[in-house]
């Protein structure tokens, strides 16, 4: 490889970047609403168990392959074995990951664009620009295009600046802001009437729901998406980690941060819904289910902010700033997958690769915006429901079966000399070989039936 590869400059930087990737709209939006519609704390419980039993080992598979190969997802998977057939399959899986990352980025960009529009709406309100603020919350193709273009521009400008100067720098700045905003918003919502009812719904488990198959499947899918697994995102981040770092520990920290923020976001969203109900907003649909889709973020919460009067203006800004930050630290991790592959496999500069790959993903976003009813849900299902688990299995198989046991041990030993006698080494290798793929297949099969 001609160009020297970038690297995270510190442990903190890697944790912020990887947690930034993991903590996204999936945490702040997906997790709380899934919890509310799946038996409250029962779902939290199942989710936490599955996250550790299944998502953490799969995360480790990606991090280890990445750091071992020190390359993009295509080269990494293609280089694990000298057998030409395995190597060919590895490259194929890698390219599939690159395409998936791009497709996930294209629908994510549209949703993130909506968050930016609502953020702009809040700012325009404070500035007294009523026409602009109204336009920004009225759904239209022009508005969606504008939001997507701006968001894609933000993502590209961070990625173009490289690993340390782009991904690490911005994740380390934005993630602490995200956490502070989250805590401030919770503190405010808790003082409002109705919040405690929501808190009870969130925290009292309805144990009759714990073993429902649909709950298990939702929890698994959510855990996978939330830890950014199955497209090579964590593999490429792992490839930028220093050889002296203890990978199982770093992976565990990232998993814990992701879980903690998802849980904390629930403390905000569910009580906020009940505060909204208290102030007269409808939060259940005709079927008696909690409104969880776009209606929650773009109707229920905004009408709550309006009901809060002047304070509500600022609360709305803080909330959509939180959502936009969560989105951008995740979207950069998606774009890094195709960009790193292009930089290492062609002679393109990082800037050129970012512009080409970023524009290609944006072009798909535009296509989706113009054919919204046809494509939006289709692309989401195709990528997150069907493809991510399948590729997740492939990553486990490559880490468990293709990467030689000895190479694996050497890789892990570099950051932790005593790894051989650790619980991790006793359990993880066979776990990732057998248990993970089987569990993923089982849930996958269930979700198809
Ligand atoms: N984990 C992010 C979230 O919770 C989304 C995400 C980032 C992602 N990178 C990914 C999902 C790669 C799948 C694959 O919103």
Question: What is the number of E strands?
Answer: 0
CATH topology, which one? Hydantoin permease
Described by strand count, sense and barrel closure, the largest sheet is: none
The CATH class turns out to be Mainly Alpha
CATH A-level architecture: Orthogonal Bundle
Q: Please give the alpha-carbon distance between the first and last residues.
A: 46 Å
The ligands bound in this entry are: tryptophan
Order of helices and strands: HHHHHHHHHHHHHHHHHH
> Strand fraction band?
under 5%
Number of domains: 1
Mean pLDDT: 90
3D structure, described in words:
The protein has 449 residues and is mainly α. The chain has a single domain, classed as Hydantoin permease. The protein has 18 helices and no strands. Helix 3 packs across helix 16 and helix 8 packs antiparallel against helix 14. Tryptophan binds next to helix 1, helix 2, helix 10 and helix 14.
């Amino acid at each position: 490889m001609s160009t020297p590869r970038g690297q995270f400059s510190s442990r903190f930087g890697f944790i912020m970047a990887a947690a930034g990737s993991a903590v996204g709209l999936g945490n702040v939006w997906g997790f709380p609403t899934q919890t509310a519609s799946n038996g409250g704390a029962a779902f939290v419980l199942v989710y936490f168990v599955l996250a550790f039993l299944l998502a953490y080992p799969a995360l480790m598979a990606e991090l280890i392959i990445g750091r071992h190969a020190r390359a993009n997802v295509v080269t990494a998977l293609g280089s694990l074995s000298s057998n030409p057939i395995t190597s060919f399959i590895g490259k194929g899986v890698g390219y599939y990951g690159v395409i998936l990352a791009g497709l996930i980025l294209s629908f994510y960009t549209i949703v993130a664009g909506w968050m930016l529009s609502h953020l702009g709406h809040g700012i325009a309100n404070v500035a007294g620009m009523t026409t602009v603020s109204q336009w920004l919350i009225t759904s239209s193709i022009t508005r969606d295009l504008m939001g997507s273009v701006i968001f894609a521009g933000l993502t590209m400008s961070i990625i173009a600046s490289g690993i340390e100067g782009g991904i690490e720098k911005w994740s380390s700045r934005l993630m602490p802001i995200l956490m502070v905003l989250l805590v401030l918003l919770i503190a405010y919502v808790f003082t409002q009437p109705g919040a405690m009812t929501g808190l009870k719904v969130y925290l009292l488990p309805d144990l009759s729901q714990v073993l429902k198959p649909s709950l298990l499947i939702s929890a698994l899918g959510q855990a996978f998406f939330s830890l950014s697994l199955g497209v090579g995102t964590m593999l490429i981040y792992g490839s930028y980690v220093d050889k002296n770092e203890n990978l199982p520990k770093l992976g565990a920290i990232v998993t814990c941060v992701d879980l903690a923020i998802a849980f904390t976001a629930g403390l905000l969203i569910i009580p906020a819904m009940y505060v909204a109900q208290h102030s007269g907003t409808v939060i259940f649909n005709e079927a008696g289910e909690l409104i969880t889709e776009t209606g929650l973020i773009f109707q229920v919460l905004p009408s709550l902010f309006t009901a809060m009067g002047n304070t509500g203006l600022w609360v709305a800004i803080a909330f959509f700033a939180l959502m936009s930050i969560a989105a951008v630290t995740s979207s950069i991790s998606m774009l890094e997958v195709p960009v790193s592959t292009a930089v290492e496999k062609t002679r393109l500069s990082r800037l050129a690769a970012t512009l080409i790959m970023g524009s290609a993903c944006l072009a798909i976003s535009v296509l989706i915006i113009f054919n919204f009813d046809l494509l939006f849900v289709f692309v989401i299902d195709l990528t997150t429901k069907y493809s991510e688990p399948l590729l997740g299995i492939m990553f486990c198989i490559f880490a468990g079966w293709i990467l030689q046991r000895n190479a694996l041990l050497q890789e892990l030993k570099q950051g932790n000399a005593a790894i051989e006698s650790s619980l991790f080494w006793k359990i993880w290798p066979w776990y990732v070989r057998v248990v993970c793929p089987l569990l993923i297949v089982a849930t996958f099969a269930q979700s198809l039936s």
